[in-house]
Design brief:
The protein has nine helices and three strands; from the N terminus they run αααααββαβααα. The protein has 200 residues and is mainly alpha-helical. It has a three-stranded antiparallel beta sheet. Helix 1 packs antiparallel against helix 3, helix 2 packs across helix 3 and helix 5 packs antiparallel against helix 8. The radius of gyration is 16 Å and the shape is globular. The two termini are 26 Å apart. The protein binds manganese (III) ion. The site of manganese (III) ion (MN3) has 7 residues, from helix 1 and helix 7.
Length: 200
């Protein structure tokens, strides 16, 4: 069974009032994300990996020097789907319930979390990702290069922001900090992070 690109969880123009143009998704979802899916299918066709779950492919190919291309494409398929779900029209604000309590406990305050997340996203040199993760019961912020992700590291991802240049160039040109600020203020999907925290 071939790997498939899930549909965007919102209309392609739904984030226009919140700082991300439809054109961004025409390229980022329609071309970049799709290319990772197409490449993964080409690279795994006829191999034993073709019938594995995407998560299994990521875990088994990580750090395997004969499967670097497979890892990069599989992880980028997963990362982008996770990223679309980390966004919602009119998101932002603050989390509630258990997640809010854990953020206060593990970061000191919500403002401190925002500062750490923004800093990780801004300082990831070159291409990569910023994440809120649950690392064995403790919430942490990490940044990862290129396609690497918490799943490969054996950690649970709650939320992510793509900081590859292609993620913000149409809307923000070279201004990565403005893209990060807009994500936290207008787009972050705390419902998705809450669902992920509750998962086993
Ligand atoms: Mn991307």
């Amino acid at each position: 069974m071939a790997f498939v690109q899930p549909p965007l969880p919102f209309d392609i123009n739904a984030l226009e009032p919140y700082g991300m143009k439809a054109e961004t998704f025409e390229y980022h979802y329609g071309k970049h994300h799709k290319a990772y899916v197409d490449n993964l299918n080409k690279l795994t066709e006829g191999t034993e990996l073709a019938d594995k779950s995407l998560e299994e492919v990521i875990k088994t190919s990580f750090k395997d020097s004969s499967k670097v291309g497979i890892f990069n494409n599989a992880a980028q398929v997963w990362n982008h789907t996770f990223f679309w779900n980390s966004l919602k029209p009119g998101g932002g604000g603050t989390p509630t319930g258990d997640l809010a309590a854990k953020i206060d406990k593990d970061f000191g305050s919500f403002d401190k979390f925002k500062e750490e997340f923004s800093n990780a996203a801004a300082t990831q040199f070159g291409s990569g990702w910023s994440w809120l993760i649950d690392d064995g019961g403790t919430l942490k912020v990490i940044k990862t290069p290129n396609a690497e992700n918490p799943l490969a590291y054996g950690q649970k991802a709650l939320l992510t922001l793509d900081v590859w240049e292609h993620a913000y160039y149409i809307d923000y040109r070279n201004a990565r900090p403005a893209f990060i600020k807009n994500f936290l203020e207008n787009l972050v999907n705390w419902d998705f992070a809450t669902e992920n925290l509750a998962k086993a």
